[in-house]
Write a structure and sequence with these properties.
seven-stranded mixed sheet
Length: 939
């Protein structure tokens, strides 16, 4: 078969009637020059692009321009049902063997293997680990996309299984938008929701699935997207070989439906007695601008420019108003104006004023000064557009393009062309856009009203406001130019400008771990320094310090006097630099620093330009050893807290009564995650005894011994230079004559089986938490073993409770562990299901635990999970992932794991055998001490 290729940097005419000379006026937006787009003779499209973010990974998508909108009146829910069946058997991969095969690559179902059905699209997603561009894995997984497109099988057994799973999904589904019905309107979209209804799903037959599949899963409506660590040309050849022979089907009855609303005014009201004020929103559906070309992209940006202009005029409109314009669904945007007020009368008055001001703007337009500012801001925004993004993000952009035609600005040439057109924007062009939006408002207005009082809002009232606004006289808008003050360059405070001379003797021990490129340094005064240079090319580093010692170490008698110390220290500057002066200097220099005191840890976190490393280290030294005592601010805050002590706000009452919050607090208190919850309740006398001088002394005592402090620095820096400046600066801290010793923390956990029930106050289903807890000695190998156990528990929950028994849609196994600060762990098995099925689920889980404690896991299954661990680590800890590296190192050290073990991560992971896992289930799972938490739903 002949292959049709084209690089997206060169435009080719495909199925268009635009004349050639039109491109002199308008041109399509290009994708990056390394991107290849093509179409096979059977109609299947493809987009292939190499990308190294992240490395060793390829994102694959099968994108179909078909969703629930192509269902017949009798096929409700069929498109989504079919998506589920794609994972339940094909000709080459019967039953669930496709998932099993993908998991042998280190992929996980739900994370790396997933799918989605919408109104106008269905797409299947694979995140595939590949060692290099020559890997055969890519060809194998592309073959699975072909299975989805044309080789699915529909067995009666799996249709029934998936029916039960989908019904559970429906029962758990929540839109979380009280005005969803208003926004959707009364149209064909409302009648063809992708999930369907419970009645729809119960009626779906095998014949329905086959009819929909054979009618719509055809190459003309399909596209392959491949982005990541791949050879583009070889990937295109593979796509041609795999998909070129698929015969297209005749498309009959395929339609693209406009998203329509009834003409006139539609109103939806919600009562919220906890709100301080009321809110009114008017949403105006209007045509979406598709960013296909330079001109259409410019037009879309002009819409954003208009929104910016209107929001700048909010004070002239004399109301708490906010304007926005965003895509909602299909071919429609919502132009929205949001108003805040104390009551309905005030809201309607403000609405009349705002509408009158909008009509005045349509007639009078914008001044030259306004336009100059708007154009300047818009063109500056274009400078921030970056073509470098993750493979997953590129796949999202390409999917939008394939479904709707939207293209992302990604080349400097196109950015410059759009910039040139934006710079020529006139006030008349913005007036025209606003006029079109207001004409659309004359056709349809969707009004949402959040009220406190229960008073109704009528269509007549809104219509009357809109009519009166036409005749209301509005004083002309007077543009007041914003005069940017020339910022005075703040001199570096003397204490932050101090420089220290590096002496090699300041370092007592240094180890470099080449696999992780981590430097572990111990200074002569005992302070530990860990450096991880990255290649993010930001010129910035992030720094986090931590040490043992926190509020949980305080006695009950003084706990409440010191618990808020970190917040008050952050309110001040330095002893030698007042807060205002320090704040101005830090903002000017790009420095940020915050201190914290948790239950068992104290520390700080911040970031700074690498060129300001000396100043940042001086700031840390001064903040931890010589903080400002901001007595005035402290006394004012303390007086306010004493005055309001004992009063409960409506929000606090709501949070106190929230069932999910109650369950989380109960779990945390039982598992030892919240030491503060077992303290005596705070009294007003505790507040009155608080003293900022005592708090400051307590804070400084935490940093008195540098041997208690570990500092982790990651970012764009030279390791040797950062080592020298840090060792010289922090090595000057005086060592403690008597080492600080904190007690070992070992959480006390349940020693017998217990069940706790909380009423969900009306939820349809019960949420079940099954907690399996215990104590352990921390090490990386133990942590990895616990994580392997978690994955095995999760796999069993999905295989048995979800797939086999259809009791829940999305069971989840969580794992929490605390090394140094608890020597404890717990697994949290979470299921949402009908209350009637709770007993059965508990018995199934008991059987799962017993099986895992008596039978060794298959070596192949264990190895698949290990591959997924390696894949996740490779994806997350890339050489430019500064924040991820800092968080990873801090987390492991706090957990009592060694950097030497982390250097040998792969070897340690490989050393864990099926027998080790079996023994771990026996050692760490105690069925006699299970804790069950129930957020009880309706029976």
């Amino acid at each position: 078969m002949r292959l049709k290729l084209r690089y997206l940097a060169v435009w080719a005419l495909v199925g268009t009637s635009i004349p050639i000379n039109a491109f002199a006026v308008d041109k399509p937006i290009n994708f990056p020059k390394t991107c290849i787009e093509g179409r096979l003779d059977n109609g299947l499209r493809y987009i292939v692009m190499p990308n190294q973010a992240p490395q060793n990974c390829v994102e694959l998508r099968l994108v179909l321009r078909v969703g629930s909108m192509q269902q017949s009146a009798m096929q409700g829910g069929t498109a989504h049902f079919l998506e589920h069946m794609a994972f339940a058997g094909s000709k080459q991969y019967p039953r669930l063997s496709m998932i099993d095969s993908l998991e042998t690559l280190g992929m996980q179902y739900g994370r790396d293997i997933n799918a989605m059905t919408g109104f106008d699209k269905t797409y299947y997603m694979l995140t595939v680990p590949v060692k290099d561009r020559q890997s055969s894995t890519l060809s194998r997984t592309l073959g699975m996309l072909k299975e989805w497109l044309c080789n699915l099988t529909f067995t009666d057994e799996y249709i029934q299984k998936e029916r039960g799973i989908i019904l559970e999904e429906l029962r758990q589904y929540d839109i979380y938008d009280p005005f969803y019905d208003l926004k959707m309107g009364n149209n064909v979209y409302r009648r063809k929701l992708p999930l369907g209804s419970i009645d729809d799903i119960q009626k779906v037959t095998k014949a329905d699935l086959l009819d929909f599949y054979h009618r719509w899963y055809t190459p003309q409506l399909a596209a392959i997207v491949a982005v990541g660590n791949l050879d583009a040309l070889k990937t295109v050849q593979t796509i041609q070989q795999l998909f070129g022979g698929i015969q297209p089907r005749k498309l009959r009855g395929y339609q693209v439906y406009p998203f329509k609303h009834d003409k006139g005014i539609s109103i939806s009201t919600m009562l919220d007695t906890l709100k301080k004020g009321e809110q009114l929103e008017v949403m105006v559906p209007h045509a979406t601008v598709i960013s296909k070309t330079i001109t259409s992209t410019t037009q879309k940006l002009r819409g954003r420019m208009l929104i910016s202009a209107l929001n700048k005029r909010a004070s002239w409109m004399q109301g708490s108003v906010d304007f926005s314009d965003a895509w909602y669904l299909a071919d429609k945007n919502f132009f929205t104006l949001s108003l805040q007020g104390s009551n309905k009368r005030e809201l309607l008055q403000r609405l009349e004023r705002v509408v009158a001001c909008l009509r005045h703007t349509c007639q009078q337009g914008f001044s030259e000064e306004e336009m100059a500012l708007l154009i300047s801001e818009s063109t500056k925004h274009l400078a921030s557009i970056d073509s470098e993004q993750s493979s997953e993000a590129w796949c999202e952009d390409f999917t939008d393009y394939l479904i709707a035609g939207d293209r992302k600005l990604s080349t400097p040439e196109d950015v410059e062309l759009v910039r040139e057109q934006l710079a020529k924007t006139t006030a008349q062009q913005l007036q025209t856009i606003l006029t079109e939006w207001l004409k659309a408002a004359d056709q349809t207005k969707l009004v949402s009203y959040v009220q406190r009082s229960g008073h109704s809002l009528t269509k007549q009232e809104i219509a009357g406001i809109w009519h009166c606004a036409k005749n209301q006289k509005v004083e002309p808008y007077v543009y007041t130019p914003h005069v940017e003050s020339v910022e005075e360059v703040k001199p570096t405070p003397e204490c932050l400008a101090k420089k220290y001379v590096f002496a090699p003797l300041a370092i007592a021990k240094e180890t470099h771990y080449p696999q992780t490129n981590t430097y572990d340094i111990v200074l002569k005064n005992g302070l530990r320094l860990v450096l991880r240079p990255t290649r993010d090319e930001s010129g910035i580093f992030t720094i986090e310090g931590f040490g043992r010692g926190g509020t949980a170490d305080l006695p009950d008698s003084t706990y409440h006097q010191y618990a808020g110390t970190a917040g008050y220290i952050d309110m001040g500057g330095l002893a030698k630099v007042p807060y205002e002066q320090l704040s101005d200097y830090m903002a000017q220099s790009g420095l940020s620093l915050g201190v914290n005191i948790a239950s068992y840890w104290h520390g700080f976190i911040g970031n700074a330009p690498t060129t300001k490393a000396q100043e940042m280290l001086n700031l840390i030294k001064e903040k931890t050893h010589h903080p400002e005592v901001n007595e005035t601010e402290f006394n004012e805050t303390k007086a306010e807290e004493v005055a309001s002590f004992g009063t409960t706000t409506p929000l606090q009452m709501l949070l106190k009564q929230d069932a999910n919050r109650m369950l989380t607090n109960l779990r945390d208190s039982i598992m030892g995650d919240a030491p503060s919850m077992i303290r005596p309740r705070q009294t007003c006398q505790d507040l009155e005894r608080q003293d900022i001088h005592h708090m400051t002394a307590y804070f400084k005592s935490l940093y008195a011994d540098p041997a208690q402090l570990t500092i982790v620095i990651a970012g764009d820096f030279d390791a040797d230079s950062m080592k020298q400046v840090t060792a010289a600066t922090l090595g000057s801290l005086q060592s403690h004559n008597i080492p600080t010793v904190y007690r070992e923390v070992r959480n006390v956990l349940p020693n017998q089986r217990a069940t706790h029930v909380i009423d969900s106050h009306g939820d349809e289903q019960t949420t079940l938490h099954i907690l399996l807890s215990g104590n352990y000695e921390p090490s990386l190998r133990t942590t990895l073993t616990l994580k392997l156990m978690r994955e095995l528990l999760q796999k069993q929950l999905i295989d048995i409770v979800r797939r086999r028994e259809n009791l829940t849609y999305s069971p989840f196994t969580d794992l929490a562990y605390h090394g140094i600060d608890g020597h404890s762990y717990y697994f949290d098995l979470i299921l949402t299901l009908d209350e009637a099925n709770v007993g059965k689920a508990e018995k199934l889980i008991q059987g799962i635990l017993t099986d895992l404690q008596t039978h060794k896991v298959k070596a192949e299954t264990l190895e698949n999970i290990k591959r997924s661990f390696r894949m996740t680590k490779a994806k997350t800890l890339t050489d430019d992932a500064t924040g991820a590296w800092r968080g990873e190192i801090v987390g492991r050290l706090k957990n009592g794991e060694s950097l030497a073990d982390f250097e040998n991560y792969d070897e340690l992971l490989s050393s864990i055998t099926p027998d080790d896992v079996l023994q771990a289930f026996k050692r760490y799972i105690h069925q006699k001490t299970i804790t069950i938490l129930k957020l009880k739903g309706k029976s």
